C-alpha cells in the first residue's frame, strides 16, 4: 500500500493512503474519543464524538470514517472540535436515561467517562423519548433501551460478525430503536446468548443478567455449596482487581471462593480432560468408520444454539460430548454425591464461567437439576467485592479432590485453538497406541478467525480447521451443507479469541489483551508435568472406579447429550 505524508496537529506523519484518520492519530499517540468506532466493525460515524478538522473542509468530519490523503492537514483538539464533541455528548445524554443515579455499567461506561471529561453536569436538551420497559426475558442478557445511544456496535457484532440477526435498528427517525424484529423480546428472537453485544455496548443498554442475589441466598441457605471454575477465569479475573491482562490468579480465586462460603471448589479443567478423552475416542471411531465427518467440537453453548437454529440437518457432524461445564455438573450430582453419601438435592452447584451463554446452557432440559446457577467472571468479581474480600492479598489455595487435578491440555481450553490442540495430543496417542511424546501443535494456534492445519496422527493425515466468531462458522457449515468440506475435525467457538473473549469477561476485548490472556493459559499449560488429558491420573481413576471404558455405556449416559431442532429458517425444517 502506498505511503503518504499528512500533517497531524502540526507534525508531519506517515500513513497508508486511504487509512482512516482515527487510526493514524491513535498510532501516533493521539487519543480521539469515540463511542461507535471499533477496529473489528464497519466504520459508520454514528456518534460524531470523534470529529476532527480537515483544512479546506468547512465541516467537521468523523475521523473513524474519513480516509487520509497526501498533504492533508488535520487538527484533533481545537476549541471548535471540543465544543462540537461536548454538544454531541449532550445530545446523546438527552436521550439517555438520567432518571437514575446508577446503572450496571457504572465505572465502566464510556459515556459516563466522556461526560466527566467534558465536565457535563447538566443536560441542556430535554429528552422526549418515552421510557421503555426493560427486557428481562433472556436467561443471559438484559436489554434496557432507555440507556441506548444508537451507536450500533451491538447491531454490528450481532449481524456482521456473528450473523445471528437477533437485533437491529427498528423504526425510523426519532423513533429508531435497537430491538429484535417484529416486536419480539430477546428470548423470542434468534439470540444465541453469546453476550458479544454486551461486550460491544459502551453504556448500560445491554448487560449480563445477574445471578448474584440468588447465589448470596444460596450461600446463606445452609446447603452444601460447590463451585466449579472454567479454564479461562484464572487468566481474566485479576483484571477486575486492577492487575494487567495475562496475570493468572488461580490460587487467589480458589481462596476467595472458600472465603465466600463454598465447601468445595472443583476445577472445570478436570472435566475438560474428560471431554478430550470422550471427544477423542468419538473422533477416532468416526474417522475409522469414515462416518459423519467432519466432527465438530461442542464445548461452546452459543455455537450449539446457533447450529440448532440455522443448521439442524447438519447436527450429526457435532460431537455428542457435553461441554466441560455440563460434564462436571453431571459428575457432581452423580459420582461425587454417591461418593460422599449426599442427596444431590442438598448440593447447590455454582458454575463460574466466562460466558453468558452458559446461563442458557444450564436451563437445557438435558441438564435440568445439575448446575444451579452461573456467575460470569465479572459477576464473581462483584460478589468478592461485596463481601469486602482483599483479593490481591489472599494466600494461594489448591482445588479440592477428587475433581481438582487437571493437565496442561485442559488449561488451553479457554482460547481459540486450545480444544483442538488438546484433542490432537490425545488422539495421536490413542490412535497409535503409543506415547508419541509430541505435545505442541503450534499450527493450530493464533488469533486468525479461521485457521487450517493438516497434522499427522499415528500415520493418518487429519485435516483440521479452527474458527472463532459465528460468521466464520457459517462459512464452514455452508461448506458442509453443500458437501464440499475438506476437513475431518473442526473446532468452533462463538466469541472472538475463544473463552478469553467471552461475553462475561471484563472489557475491553482488544486483540492484544486477548493474546495476553491466552498467553497466561499457555504458561499454565507449559508449567504442568502432565500435558495430555488421557494421562490425568484422577481422570483414569474415575473411569476405573465409576465410568468404565472410554466412550462406554455409562460414560455415554453421563457425559454425552443430544441436540434440539430450534430451526428458524425453512431450509433446515
Structure explained in plain terms:
It is a single chain. With 573 residues, the protein is of the alpha/beta class. The protein folds into three domains: 3-77, Ubiquitin-like (UB roll); 92-126 and 134-208, Alpha-Beta Plaits (2-Layer Sandwich); 213-559, Rossmann fold (3-Layer(aba) Sandwich). Helices cover 34% and strands 14% of the residues. The protein has 18 helices and 17 strands. It has helices spanning 21-27, 79-94, 110-117, 153-161, 196-200, 212-219, 250-260, 268-289, 301-310, 324-340, 357-361, 377-386, 408-411, 418-432, 470-482, 511-527, 537-547, 553-559, and strands at 3-8, 11-16, 51-54, 61-62, 73-75, 141-143, 168-170, 177-179, 206-208, 224-229, 264-267, 295-296, 347-353, 373-376, 450-457, 460-468, 489-493. A five-stranded mixed beta sheet has the order 2-1-5-3-4, sandwiched between helices. Helix 8 packs across helix 10 (324-340) and helix 8 packs across helix 14. The longest helix has 22 residues, at 268-289.
Amino acid at each position: 500500500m502506498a505511503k503518504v505524508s499528512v500533517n497531524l496537529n502540526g507534525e508531519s506523519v506517515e500513513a497508508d493512503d486511504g487509512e482512516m484518520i482515527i487510526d493514524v492519530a491513535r498510532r501516533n499517540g493521539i487519543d480521539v474519543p469515540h463511542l461507535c468506532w471499533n477496529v473489528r466493525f464497519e466504520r459508520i460515524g454514528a456518534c460524531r464524538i470523534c470529529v476532527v478538522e480537515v483544512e479546506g473542509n468547512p465541516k467537521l468530519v468523523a475521523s473513524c470514517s474519513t480516509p487520509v490523503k497526501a498533504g492533508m492537514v488535520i487538527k484533533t483538539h481545537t476549541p471548535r472540535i471540543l465544543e462540537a464533541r461536548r454538544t454531541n455528548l449532550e445530545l446523546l445524554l438527552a436521550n439517555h436515561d438520567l432518571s437514575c443515579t446508577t446503572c450496571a455499567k457504572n465505572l465502566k461506561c464510556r459515556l459516563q467517562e466522556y461526560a466527566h471529561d467534558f465536565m457535563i453536569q447538566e443536560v441542556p436538551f430535554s429528552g422526549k423519548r418515552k421510557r421503555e420497559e426493560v427486557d428481562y426475558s433472556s436467561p443471559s442478557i438484559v436489554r434496557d433501551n432507555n440507556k441506548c445511544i444508537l451507536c450500533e456496535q451491538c447491531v454490528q457484532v450481532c449481524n456482521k460478525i456473528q450473523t445471528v440477526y437477533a437485533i437491529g435498528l427498528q423504526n425510523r427517525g426519532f423513533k429508531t430503536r435497537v430491538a429484535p424484529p417484529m416486536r419480539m423480546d430477546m428470548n423470542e428472537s434468534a439470540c444465541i446468548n453469546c453476550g458479544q453485544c454486551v461486550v460491544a455496548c459502551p453504556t448500560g443498554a445491554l448487560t449480563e443478567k445477574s445471578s448474584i442475589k440468588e447465589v448470596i441466598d444460596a450461600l446463606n441457605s445452609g446447603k452444601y455449596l460447590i463451585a466449579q471454575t472454567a479454564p479461562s477465569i484464572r487468566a481474566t479475573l485479576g483484571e477486575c482487581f486492577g492487575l494487567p491482562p495475562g496475570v493468572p490468579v488461580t490460587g487467589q480465586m480458589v481462596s476467595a471462593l472458600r472465603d465466600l462460603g463454598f465447601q468445595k471448589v472443583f476445577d472445570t479443567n478436570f472435566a475438560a480432560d474428560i471431554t478430550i478423552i470422550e471427544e477423542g475416542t468419538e473422533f477416532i471411531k468416526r474417522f475409522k468408520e469414515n462416518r459423519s465427518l467432519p466432527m465438530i467440537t461442542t464445548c461452546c453453548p452459543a455455537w450449539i444454539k446457533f447450529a440448532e437454529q440455522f443448521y439442524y440437518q447438519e447436527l450429526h457432524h457435532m460431537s455428542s460430548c457435553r461441554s466441560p461445564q455440563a460434564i462436571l455438573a453431571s459428575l457432581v450430582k452423580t459420582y461425587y454425591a454417591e461418593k460422599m453419601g449426599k442427596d444431590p438435592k442438598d448440593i447447590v452447584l455454582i458454575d463460574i464461567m466466562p460466558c453468558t451463554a452458559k446461563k442458557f446452557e444450564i436451563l437445557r432440559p438435558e441438564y435440568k437439576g445439575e448446575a444451579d446457577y452461573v456467575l460470569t467472571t465479572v459477576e464473581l468479581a462483584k460478589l468478592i467485592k461485596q463481601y469486602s474480600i482483599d483479593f490481591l492479598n489472599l494466600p494461594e489455595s489448591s482445588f479440592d479432590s477428587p475433581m481438582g487435578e487437571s493437565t496442561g491440555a485442559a488449561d488451553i481450553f479457554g482460547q481459540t485453538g486450545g480444544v483442538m490442540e488438546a484433542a490432537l495430543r490425545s488422539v495421536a496417542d490413542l490412535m497409535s497406541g503409543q506415547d508419541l511424546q509430541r505435545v505442541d501443535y503450534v499450527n493450530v494456534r493464533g488469533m486468525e478467525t479461521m485457521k487450517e492445519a493438516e497434522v499427522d496422527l499415528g500415520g493418518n493425515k487429519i485435516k483440521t480447521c479452527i474458527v472463532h466468531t459465528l460468521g466464520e462458522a457459517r462459512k464452514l457449515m455452508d461448506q458442509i451443507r453443500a458437501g464440499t468440506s475438506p476437513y475431518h475435525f473442526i473446532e468452533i467457538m462463538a466469541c472472538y479469541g475463544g473463552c478469553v473473549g467471552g461475553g462475561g469477561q471484563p472489557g475491553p476485548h482488544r486483540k492484544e489483551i486477548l493474546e495476553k490472556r491466552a498467553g497466561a493459559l499457555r504458561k499454565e499449560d507449559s508449567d504442568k508435568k502432565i500435558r495430555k488429558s488421557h494421562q490425568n491420573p484422577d481422570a483414569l481413576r474415575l473411569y476405573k472406579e465409576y465410568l468404565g471404558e472410554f466412550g462406554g455405556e455409562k460414560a455415554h449416559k453421563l457425559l454425552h447429550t443430544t441436540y434440539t431442532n430450534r430451526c428458524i429458517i425453512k431450509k433446515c425444517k
